Amino acid sequence: MSIMHLNVARKVRHYRLSKSRAYVALFEAISNSIDAIGERETTGSIHITFKRDTSQATLLPDNEDGGLLKEVTVTDNGIGFTDDNYTSFLESDTARKEQLGGRGLGRFSWLKVFEKVEIMSDFVVDGKGHRRTFAFERTPEGISNPSLIETDDHKFSTMVKFINQKKEWEIPKRQVTFAEKLIEHFLPRFISGTIPHIVLADDDKGDTLIVNNYFKDHYRGQISEKPFSVLNKNFLLSVHKTTIGSCNSLVLLANNRATKVVNLSKYIIDLENKIFDQDEEFYIIAFIKGDYLDSGASPERDEFHFGYDEEQDEIDVKAIIAEASALIKEEIAALLQPIVERKRGRLDNIVSTVAPEYRHVISKNPAIVDEISPNASNAEIETILHREEYKQKQSTIKAIEKILEAESMEHEKVEEAFQEITETAKAELAKYVLWRKHIINLLEKRISWNAAKKFEKEDSLHNLFYSMRKTSDEVPHETNNLWLVDERLNFHSYLASDKYLDEENRPDVLIYNSPVLFNNSENPENSFVVIEFKRPSRNDYHDEENPIDQVYEYIDKIRSGKAKYPNGQLIIITENTPCYVYIISDLSGKMVKYCRKNDFIVTHDGLGFFYYHKEYRAYIEVISYQKVLKDSKQRNRIFMKKIGVQP
Predict the structure, then answer these.
(1) pTM of the predicted model, to two decimals?
(2) Which among 124, 186, 353, 508 is least buried, having the fewest CB atoms inside 10 angstroms?
(3) Which domain, by its residues, includes 358?
(4) 176-196: buried (b, 16+ CB within 10 Å) or exposed (e) per residue?
(5) How far is CA 161 from its chain centroid?
(6) CATH code, domain carrying 560
(7) Both 588 and 529 in a single domain?
(8) Taking Cα atoms as reference points, which of 505, 594, 590, 606 lies closest to residue 548?
């Protein structure tokens, strides 16, 4: 009879195992020990000893316990490598432990992580002692130096020795970390108390850790256990409290062993940190088990592959996790409530002091608090609110369009749509008012001494009002801050900032207006505006630098028909086109002298001058920075108070 032979080296090569989960290879040996102890039906113990390559210890960080593993021994007092068990070991994909959920492949993971494995097993059959030894290696044959002898000892002891960890494979170096991973992997057994006595020993340091005791010291009890179903597939969810680990976890089990572990904060945002309850802090650890998971685990037990059933809808892991997460959230709602309340408090504070424009967003969707991480910064919270505001706005627009498209409009629906528009408009206005408050504050700083007790240069102020060397085609409308001077300057058909009219003349700001703004419909003439900024406290003008004469030259140039747009086209100005001029300057001695010499009239508050030049058809204002600041504060004061911000 022909016998099919197995190439162990190729089997190992194709065995799938993540390098970050190399410890699972050791867990496979521990699982075999648990099964062997169960088969013997006795009180069992498993002793795991670690011996490291200490030559690397000086190269490791202080928090790492030694170098790569030179040896790991897993010793148990289970049934041992009897003839039946040895025959099963030699058979790939053996079905011997199928009823226990065994896949018959776990031992191949050993040779993914370690160079070699040696086995020595003492056992008793029919009252006679036996010792079986052999080596398991990454060769086509796999087995070398097999031996079976009778002994005078009547003991049960199997030692699996792993030799020389490969450097690219990651196994926790800290004893406690390994213990926590082990508990997570066999969690149901630890909770039910059906796990054998397990001891971890560091051969180099002499430290020992009894894993069972470590679990008891850190386990804080069960919260709930509930069945649930997804597309008629039944599962059992068990939720517990523990101080083990570094995050809140959900474990999907296959045959009582961890197959997939997910961070619960990805599904329940309030579980990003430990839970605090009655002076106690802990993590949530939950696990799901069910026949569907048992049958769907991959051969390597690292993921799930569910077959497609034509008679039923397909189900995937994401659906199971989502359903379980929703149930966990319900079960621990009381524990999460303080976290939710703290987030609500932060939201209230933000909309009261920083972002009042989002108050209506929260009012319309209070559940938005569930989208905010407990660790979110104020900026991150504002981003979430902005995103929600956009969604609400789009929803409102669609609802209004639907109403307007209807053949007949019901009064109630129209009124509802109007309310929606009103709330959205309020929010937009609030944001704009806050922007104005920010700009006013900046202006106040820039017209005062800086740290060097000097005034800001003209360019710095110019850029605050409007970006230099830009046109209205290049700058977003929202960044136009000429409203500081006059609200009407927000609206224009064309604006050039610090652009040449010709080869010599370059006003700070030139604005060309369409007929609808500065004039009423009965006198539809165009207009243009010239604005000049002067450095605060400047008093060193020469007569040829007289700012008033300077703007007259600009007006002459524009009216002469020689001024051009940046694209080269002439700016057409008629003889009757009115002109508005603003000279923004501190009222220094020379500036006042120029104003009085040109018959300018002092404003009622003494902070500026004005004059109408009939020949130029130009209304000219000389405004101090103090007046610009004072007037802009007064104009915007009521808006700031309405949104709850101090002017």
Answers:
(1) 0.63
(2) 353
(3) 351-430
(4) eebbbbbbbbbbbbbbeeebb
(5) 44
(6) 3.40.91
(7) yes
(8) 594
